[in-house]
Amino acid sequence: MSPFADRLAVLQSLGASPAECTELLHYNENHFDPGGLRRIGSLPLADEPFAAEWARYAREARSAGAWTVLRNALVQLRFAVRHGMSRTRGYDAATRSPGPVRDDLPPLRLHAPDAVRIEIHPTPAGRLPAIIAPHRGDFELLVQALTKRNEPVPVPVSLGACMVAGYTNVERLRRWKEEWWSGQPFPTESGWRRELGAAARRRAHCQDRFVIACTAPYSAVPAARLALAEAEWERLSLAIRIEHESMHYFTRRVFGSMKNRLLDELIADYAGIFRATGRFRADWALRFLGLESYPDYRPGGRLECYRGDPPLSDGAFRILQHLVKRAAENLATWSATADDPTRPDGHIRTVLALTRLTVEDLAASDAGDRLRAAACAVDPHLPGAPRPVHARPAPSARGSRCE
After folding, report:
1. Which of 204, 226, 249 finishes a domain?
2. 380 lies in the same domain as 317
3. Which range marks the domain in which residue 345 is found?
4. Which of the four pLDDT bands, split at 50, 70 and 90, describes residue 99?
5. Are residues 265 and 386 in the same domain?
6. Are residues 156 and 7 in the same domain?
7. Is residue 35 in a domain?
8. Phi, psi of 278 (to 5 degrees)
9. pTM assigned to the model
């Protein structure tokens, strides 16, 4: 049976109509490029250029304080969040080109600036910086400043972490310009523009990727619902968030894809829950998505955020809920025997395997066999595995054997 027919059979077994099957086959299509693993050979990857600079920020923050360091490094943090800020001349000039920052515009003031900290999180795709703002209001201000051009765009209550990608660090750009300017006998703005156009590799050093996170309950689930103390749930929520975002970074860098779809979220939540607790808990994953009382769905659950664009029809969305329920339970069964919580990379084998499958694969009655075949196919790329001399296509998930 072809992979397409196999996926169709799973959907039909759940009672999906022909129209709903068409919707879900398109929605659940796997967008990860399996050639990514062949190109890198083995993990972990070397850091991207921004990691060393952010490691310096973290070191400086130990003495100067994270908020002081961040305001100096990220120019948007020198401006208040208010309506129309992005349209002011001083803001536009400061955030688009290296130059002096006007001091006549109101500054950004946090509720608890001393609580902000910078962490550097190791991932299989290189180190990833994170700005941690325990105060919920400060987290929202940072998201608005760094992703919404200091405009007060509402931040959903279910959002507790945000990946900032492709961020142009104007402060590093300014230092580069000063260095170039001082080394030229006759520097000109046109010469600087030519330098920018020619030095693509150097320009990459001015591009950042980092996470903003808070310690509010993950997916807005109260601690009491999980029978946990508030402080413990705060700690676990942050651990889940950072690992969740790290997996999005990992799939984007290795497999060229990071989408707002269910498979991406299952992978990221799998990794986050495992990293925080040492095992994957299906009951937690389902509660985070609003399916703790399946077949009833809790309105406002995170699953609504991944309904697609255009959104799935009501019927297809109900079938998706059934897929999630079965996939989460199958993943919990797999995790209990296949993951090793004593190793720091104990869940990465499963993450890699999941990038080769679809939600229908994970919901199938033989999901364990499909996961095992996919895991065997990615074994040569795990940390510590020898790098192959000649890259060859990895075997497909089905039909491969692992002895």
Report:
1. 249
2. yes
3. 1-30+259-403
4. low
5. yes
6. no
7. no
8. 85, 0
9. 0.87
In a domain, 52, yes or no: yes
| 387 and 279 co-located in one domain | yes
For the stretch 241-282, pLDDT in tens is 999 999 999 999 999 998 889 999 999 999 999 999 989 999
- 263 and 245, same structural domain? no
Tokens read off for 72: 């100096």
Query: How many Cβ atoms are within 10 Å of 271's Cβ, its own excluded?
Result: 25
Is residue 344 pLDDT above 70, yes or no? no
Work out the angle at residue 252's Cα, subtended by the Cα atoms of residues 29 and 206, and round it to the nearest 5 degrees. Answer: 150
Number of independent structural domains in the chain: 2
Residues 6+ apart with CB under 8 A from 214: 132, 133, 134, 135, 136, 138, 139, 160, 161, 238
Amino acid of residue 119: E
Residue 113 preceded by cis peptide, ω within 30: no
Is 185 within the bounds of a domain?
yes
Listed in sequence order, the residues at least 6 apart from 93 whose beta carbon sits closer than 8 Å to its beta carbon are 99, 102
The count of other CB atoms within 10 Å of the CB of residue 84 is 10
Say if residue 169 is in the same domain as residue 234: yes
- How far from 30 is each of 43, 115, 187, 203, 397, CA to CA, in Å? 22, 40, 50, 32, 13
Q: What CA–CA distance (Å, rounded) separates 210 from 399?
A: 39
Q: Which helix (H) or strand (E) holds 252?
A: helix 230-255
**Cα 359 to Cα 272: distance, rounded to the nearest angstrom:** 18
